[in-house]
Amino acid sequence: MVDFGNDWNDVLAGEFDKEYYRILRGFLKREYSEEIIYPDMYDIFQAFKSTAYSDVKIVIVGQDPYAQPNQAHGLCFSVKPGVKIPPSLKNIYKEINDDLGIPIPQSGYLMSWAKQGVLLLNTILTVRKGQPLSHKGYGWEKFTDNVFRKLNERKEPIVFMLWGNPAKSKASLITSHRHIILKSSHPSPLGVHRGFFGCKHFSKANEILLSMNQTPIDWRIY
Which position among 3, 7, 55, 64 bears the catalytic label? Predict the structure, then answer.
């Protein structure tokens, strides 16, 4: 059992006893003992520890962690303080600047978003150094699918930002009409001009939150 330190403990109770997760855990034990794996094992569930289930207002979906040293720390698109901002996050900042006029930050550390209710969730939570998607198909997808099902059960509306096809594939799990789904292409250099630039998801999400009498997200980085 993982201790998230908040209500995810109850929401995901029993998940870690399922057969698929026992197999995944055995795989991860071998990987962490034999390979260089990101993020640090204590940061795997940082997204859940940073944003309680009951606090989730917005879900931003990533694919898998950054595969280079000192980047991944358990929040999708985020990097540790002092680390060079990756291309996809640079493009996210450019869209926020164009959408809301917020100056482009010098830091790629997105914890301030997480603390306001933005769940920064990758669909795969671990990766081998230098090998993107190396942990695809080992069980994380089942885990995060079940997380989406739990989010779908929330009575309070959630805004889901699904960027790129892997993220959009999760839309089928969001069946409740209470929730709002915003879709675009991925903010990577390959996909950013196919619909991400100009999507205005950040202002749209805040307008939706305000319409539901919720506090909007301050998208600045502190």
Answer: 64
Residue closest to 129 by CA, chosen among 72, 58, 210:
72
pLDDT in tens, the chain (222 residues): 789 999 999 999 999 999 999 999 999 999 999 999 999 999 999 999 999 999 999 999 999 999 999 999 999 999 999 999 999 999 999 999 999 999 999 999 999 999 999 999 999 999 999 999 999 999 999 999 999 999 999 999 999 999 999 899 999 999 999 999 999 999 999 999 999 999 999 999 999 999 999 999 999 998
Catalytic (active site) residue 55: no
DSSP string, 17-52: GSHHHHHHHHHHHHHHHHS-EES-GGGTTHHHHHS-
Q: Which helix (H) or strand (E) holds 102?
A: none
- In the three-class reduction of DSSP (H, G, I as helix; E, B as strand; rest coil), residue 39 is classed as coil
Rounded to whole angstroms, the Cα distance separating 55 from 47 reads: 12
Rounded Cα gap, residues 104 and 102, in angstroms: 6
